[in-house]
Design goal:
Elements: E1 8-12, H1 17-28, E2 32-38, H2 53-56, E3 59-64, H3 69-76, E4 81-84, H4 91-96, H5 98-119, E5 124-127, H6 152-171, E6 175-180, E7 182-184, H7 193-202, E8 207-210, E9 216-217, E10 219-221, H8 222-234, H9 237-240, E11 244-247, E12 253-254, H10 255-265, E13 271-274, H11 294-300, H12 308-320, H13 322-325
Parallel strand pairs: 1-2, 1-4, 2-3, 4-5, 5-6, 6-11, 7-10, 8-13
Antiparallel strand pairs: 9-12
Region (Disordered): 137-159
InterPro entries: Arna-like_SDR_e, NAD(P)-bd_dom, NAD(P)-bd_dom_sf
Organism: Kitasatospora arboriphila
Length: 335
């Protein structure tokens, strides 16, 4: 595929945080996008509704569900590439509803793989997560790090990864797996730590309610994540197909230090109140994640274009817009 050719890219999970940014990136690169939005009776297209008309003119929105094979087949038919981002992602909710995670993240992925296989789609980009590694045993984390799933969410994502690997090995399905580390930026839900902190500060709070402040994370700005998806979706097959790639910065910061940095950038003197409801079970907490993205850089030339502070400033600007802040319930704990 070439960014100068009007190819068709199908995206599952297109209405979500990363998915909507990826749709923007693909359109900017010259693709037409067929975007699956999970069927709902509110006729809501999620974050796609906030995109400019110049973007939406190149997007066909399809209501469906990755748990339904027919929906997936209709979405991917005739596509030049499929980007599979649809997933249940909130770790705390996976403790409450693990069956839902298996149905979406494992069976949904199976449906996508089957459709891509039988319709002979030239490229499938499957989305993994750094949570499949669990707490770092060696640092930085390469793609050869052991898989150690410490939550039902992580286990369901690892299941999808193994299916993707097996389809490439068994059927030569042209799949590449991208494993982003902790993506952040505008449009992210309040179940993640950065919008939780920034959203509370933007709403006027100076005592921030959080869980454990000790874990460290490798935070990747969402536009860099979208660029990584687009890169592995268009790179020559011999460079990427059948491989798994980390996408991260190689840096890390603790949640506690992150709060301090956000306070500095927002000119706010912050204190933290611990909420035990936000703390994961001890054996389930992933204490340290930091990426080694050498494989992705060497295969494609991709590298992050934004520093943590630059990304935070863009995110702060987003949440300080009253129209954007009004979309969030900053006073509620989002599971």
């Amino acid at each position: 595929m070439s960014s100068t050719t009007a190819t068709t890219a199908a995206v599952t999970g297109a209405e979500g945080f990363i998915g909507s940014h990826l749709v923007e990136k693909l359109v900017a690169d010259g693709h037409r996008v067929r975007a699956m939005v999970q069927y709902n009776s509110f006729s809501s297209f999620g974050w796609l509704e906030t995109l400019g008309q110049d973007v939406l003119d190149n997007v066909e929105i399809v209501l469906g569900d990755v748990r339904d094979p027919g929906s997936v087949t209709g979405l991917v038919k005739g596509a030049d590439a499929v980007y599979h981002l649809a997933a249940l992602i909130a770790i705390p909710y996976s403790y409450q509803a693990p069956h839902s995670y298996v149905e979406t993240n494992v069976t949904g992925t199976l449906n996508v793989l089957e459709a891509v296989r039988h319709l002979e789609i030239p490229r499938l980009v499957h989305t993994s997560t750094s949570e499949t590694y669990g707490t770092a045993q060696t640092v930085p984390i390469t793609e050869d790090h052991p898989i150690n799933t410490q939550s039902p969410y992580a286990a369901s994502k690892a299941g999808g990864d193994r299916l993707a690997d097996s389809y490439h090995a068994s059927f030569e399905t042209p799949v590449v797996t991208l494993r982003p580390f902790n993506t952040f930026g505008p449009r992210q839900s309040m179940r993640a730590v950065i919008p939780t902190v920034i959203g509370q500060v933007a709403a006027g709070e100076r005592t921030i309610t959080l869980g454990d402040l000790r874990p460290t994370r490798d935070f990747l700005y969402v536009k860099d994540t979208a660029a990584a998806f687009a890169t592995v979706g268009t790179a020559p097959a011999e460079q990427v197909v059948g491989r798994t790639f980390n996408a991260g910065t190689g840096g890390e910061i603790s949640v506690g230090d992150l709060v301090t940095l956000v306070g500095k950038l927002m000119d706010a003197d912050l204190t933290v109140r611990e909420d035990t409801d936000r703390i994961r079970p001890a054996a389930s907490e992933v204490m340290r994640l930091v990426a080694d993205a050498t494989r992705l850089r060497e295969a494609t030339g991709w590298a992050p274009a934004h520093s943590l502070e630059e990304g935070l400033l863009h995110t702060i600007e987003f949440f300080r817009d009253p129209a954007n802040l009004a979309r969030y319930k900053t006073d509620l704990y989002n599971v």
